[in-house]
Each structure stands twice: as structure tokens, then as C-alpha cells.
Description:
alpha+beta
Amino acid sequence: MSGAVEARLAALGLALPQVAAPLAAYQPAVRTGAHVYTAGQLPLVDGTLPLTGKVGAEVTAEEAKDLARTCALNALAAVKSVAGDLDRVARVVKVVGFVASAADFTGQPGVLNGASELLGEVFGDKGVHARSAVGVAVLPLDAPVEVEVLVELTDD
């Protein structure tokens, strides 16, 4: 099932990927009431990380921003897997992003703009959200970025 949101993605030259298989004992997304919480989404493309390492060392901030955009796209696929249709998203409530950072890297908010900007392009005003951007020592699979999303759905 696809609608206006997926048409906007297509207009941006994007398509929802398959939901990434969990790396451990968790679900990619869980719905409770009117909310969908995604697990942390890595920037996997066809099951592979295009880049690995620390942002500010092996990975540039601009590369990491693009990876955060991929994380957000993967999160939307996870949301759709439990909501059935992205047109049911009433609003994006919160985005939490983790950036594997070199010791002196302080540009985490700029990296996470990749995710936030995609959500704004796709959902318009409904994509404006609260956000946390956190620098960490390391992420699973040596990923540079991980993003989780909380959305509110419209009534069934």
C-alpha cells in the first residue's frame, strides 16, 4: 500500500527499503496505542554499511549527514511495517540520533540534520520534531550513525 508520503519519497528519488533484520533480540518497530517507536536504525543499504568508523576521523561530517538521512529512510520502513501506511503518520514526535564521534568532534547536531531534513521534506509541518543528538564512542558494526524515531499515528 502506498500513498502521498511514498509519492513524496519517489519525487525525492527515494524508495522505502526492506526493513533491516534485527541484529539482536529486538523488533525493528513497536506500536503501542497511537505511537510507533523504532529501534535504532543503522544506515544500511541492501544490508551493508556504506561507510564505517568515527565521524571527524574516518568519516566526514557531510558523509555522516547523508548516512543519517539513510537511517531516517530505514526508520520510515520500520514505521510502515507496523503502521501499514505512512499516510497514517499524524506527526513525527521525536528523533534520537547517535554519532560515533572522534574525541574532538562536536558537530553531532549537523550530522542529525540529515535525518531531520528528510523527515521535513517527506512530512512537511508534521515532520517537525523534538530531537537529541548524542556523541558516542562506538556503534554496532562500527556504524558512524544510528537514528531512532517516534511517530504518532492517526486513528485507525
